[in-house]
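Researcher: I'd like a structural prediction for the single chain below. Treat it as a standalone chain; there are no partners to consider.
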Amino acid sequence: MNISIVTVGKLKEKYLTLGINEYLKRLSAYAKIEVIEVPDEKAPEQLSETEMEQIKQKEGERILAKVHPDAHVIALAIQGKQMSSEQLASELDKLATYGKSKIAFIIGGSLGLSDEVLKRSNAQLSFSKMTFPHQLMRLILVEQVYRAFRINRGEPYHK
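Model: Treating it as a single chain, here is the predicted structure.
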């Protein structure tokens, strides 16, 4: 399975980088995985609704340019479907079973995802109704994908 995580912005926090790299290393035993960063759009603190949409649009274009045409796209979005770790594992297993070997997870910028990205997605996944920093979502996502592979292989994992 080939998994890409397309995300907006550079990761600056060393503790997050260390955690993500650890899970990417562990995941390499199960799948080919890559993290693709696209630049975030610089914006002032106070934005109009129009300016917010323009920023999401520009970031969305950058995201979509990095998504393989054959990829099954899962966008991380607050309004998406919430799943347990076991349900995510089952979904990834079904995708592999039905020949969807390219999966792209999308993590938007601080303003969220453009309508175009949401329309391109095959599924929307929410980890919580709470808002998390998008940099932290990277770590949470790679941990959950790792956990999903462990579950699917019947290997022990912490509950």
